[in-house]
Amino acid sequence: MTTQQTDKIMRTVFVDTVSAALDEDPRIAVVTADISAGAFAPARERHPDRVINVGIREQAMIGVAGGLALTGLRPVVHSYTPFLVERPFEQLKLDLGHQDVGAVLASIGGSYDDPVWGRTHQAPGDVALLDTLPGWTVHVPGHPDEVEPLLRAALAGSGRVYLRLSARENGSALPTGEFTLVRKGSRGVVLAVGPMLDGVLAATAGLDVSVLYASTVRPFDHAGLRAAVAGATPEVVLVEPYLAGTSAHQVSETLADVPHRLRSLGVSRDREVRAYGTATDHDAVHGLDPAGLAVAIRDFFH
């Protein structure tokens, strides 16, 4: 994974796209809890009734979004990952899920994008936590150019969508939606999620394996994985930028009738890193840097 390789970053694309959508679609409303509230100041001047900052009240932020959705609006809610998913989880469950109303949640910070802020701003379990609730679509773009098409589709819809933005990115954008076959091989399949792709491609150089790319993980593209496995040995390595094994049950469901082997790589479930450092340092600790990925993947396919 690399950091901000282009002149665009995902959060900037997000703010620009939502600000434009506020001008175009009277259903769109934005709810923040101080984080990035300033980025929406110009939009707030144009639409003071549909750009709401609740202050440092994350549970209220989701409750307000649920109320807006009940009136027919399409709320967009934005904050750091732990303040968007973990702290107000009960409100996600009740004010959105139990009420069966939709919203677009867009997080920043990822698993540990900004380790300078410490553990309070880290949430590698976000997608796994949302996975306990039904009806969520989850997007994990790997490049700023993937953000707008995913976000535009989410804004036009009515469901519950989680858009996991990151400061980490691949060198180039790929089509969004179904899984994309990036490299064809016969030994097995490596499924790279979002910004993990470049590291996976480096780690698998010279290996006879297929590499699949996913920017959308819920719903899971069962047909895409089955098609890739059909032309290869039924061995799968799942590489995710969040909690290791988050989508392991989806892989197992896809291949329920096919004897297979699975290795899940991601942020460790067995340890909490209590140091600050850089995001690259954290990658190395969790074996998610290209060198660590190469060791794990090559050992699996040995």
Automatic annotation (TrEMBL):
- SUPFAM superfamilies per the UniProt record, alphabetical: Thiamin diphosphate-binding fold (THDP-binding) (SSF52518), TK C-terminal domain-like (SSF52922)
List the signal peptide residues. Answer: none
All residue ranges annotated as the Transketolase-like pyrimidine-binding domain in the record: 8-176
Gene Ontology MF terms in the entry? magnesium ion binding
Pfam (any one)? Transket_pyr
InterPro entries, sorted: PDH/Transketolase, THDP-binding, Transketo_C/PFOR_II, Transketolase-like_Pyr-bd
Instruction: Give the matching PANTHER family.
Output: PYRUVATE DEHYDROGENASE E1 COMPONENT, TRANSKETOLASE-LIKE PYRIMIDINE-BINDING DOMAIN-CONTAINING PROTEIN
**What is the name of this protein?**
Transketolase
Originating organism:
Actinophytocola xinjiangensis
